Amino acid sequence: MFIITVTLAFALSFLFALGGVGAAVALVPALHWLGVPFAAAKPTGLMVNTLSMSGASYANIKNKRLDFRLGIPIIITSALFAPLGAWSTKIIAHDVVMVIFIVFLVFSGTMLLFFRGNKFAANFRDDRPITGPAMIGAAAGFLSGLLGVGGGSLISPLMIFMGFNPKRVAAVTAFVVPFSSFIGFVAYAAMGTVNWQVLIPASLAAYVGGFLGTNFMQGRLKPGTVKKFLGLILFGLAIKMVMGLL
């Protein structure tokens, strides 16, 4: 079980890093199918997000690519709603959470398959509103806590639809996700659902896999060449989850 968990966490993180996205959305259901309780798989996914996205955020800050003023409203609301999402698992039925997870998988897979933010790169806005980004942060934070996945799959397309430059959005997303993920993780830890024997090796393996995948991608691949394949994986996971509910 230990070897399978470490191998799976490493492989998924490496593969999803090739497409420039986090692996928690696939890692959480995969761990659950291996026999890890859903309540323990979710904080593991959140810790993986925290570790993997922190490096990207640090690089963006170091290279002055991050727009703090645009990201602050999203950080505040996502940080507030992430623990609310985690705690709501006590009152929302398990099957309902699974259905929400399936919808999120389909949405994320659709974005990977069909959405191309670079189409909007020439038509971006320079203002820094508060209300719209704050609402996006609240929704992303709640889903992050509820499902144990990063809210980046929701933040990026919605911010781009609002007219923001995809490069600025990518930097903001990498900055926001570690905050909401870590606070969601803390909420699960406070509820006592963290399985440390699973979390520690899976998180370390995922961090190494994500680091190697990112460097491999930067040297040899473009994220767009892998995203369609990852989208198909997420659709496959959604189908498997649907079959599990039937």
Morphology: globular
Helix share, percent? over 70%
Oligomerization status of the protein chains: single chain
How many strand segments? 0
Gyration radius, rounded = 17 Å
Order of helices and strands: HHHHHHHHHH
Word description of this protein:
This protein is mainly α and 246 residues long. The chain has one domain (2-245). 79% of the residues lie in helices and 0% in strands. It contains ten helices and no strands. The two termini are 27 Å apart. The model has no long low-confidence stretch (mean pLDDT 84).
Which SSEs are present, and which pair or pack?
Blueprint (H helix, E strand, L loop, with lengths): L1 H17 L5 H10 L4 H25 L5 H20 L6 H21 L16 H17 L4 H10 L4 H26 L4 H25 L2 H23 L1
Task: Give the key terms.
246 residues, mainly alpha, globular
Brief rundown of the structure:
The protein has 246 residues and is mainly α. Helix content is 79%, strand content 0%.
